[in-house]
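**Backbone geometry record:**
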Amino acid sequence: MTGTVRLIRAPQLSDVAEYAYAAGVTPPARLIFTAGACPLDAEGRTVAPGDPAAQARQVMANLATALAAAGAGLTDVVKTTVYVASSDRADLVAVWEVVRDAFGDHDPPSTLLGVAVLGYTDQLVEVEAVAAVRAEVG
C-alpha cells in the first residue's frame, strides 16, 4: 500500500463482512477507475466456461494487469464491485473467496452482486475497481 489508501473499520457494525466498511484517500492522490475486468485470455476468449472460481482467478489477474498499466496494484484499491452471473449463493461465495484471497491482507470495501447476465459469451464473473496512488507533486 502506498499510504494513500486508508481502510476504515466500523466496530459498531458486524465483523462478519470480510472487508473494511469504508476507505479514505489521502491527498495528494490520483484516482484510477478500471473497466470491469473480465475472464478473457490474451486472445479474447472467455476462460473456464461454467467455472466461476476459475473465471475469478483470471479476472483478478487481468485486474492486476490493468492496474499495473495505470501505475497501481491491488493494495492501492479503494473499492471493488464484483458481479457474478448466477442466482446461486454458492457461486457468489466461491468467487468472493478468490477475490478476497487475491487481495490478501488488503481488504477494501466491496459490493458483491448476483446478476442475470454479463457481456461476453460464457462470462460468469466481472470485477471493477477504484484505486488511488500518490499524485506527483510539483
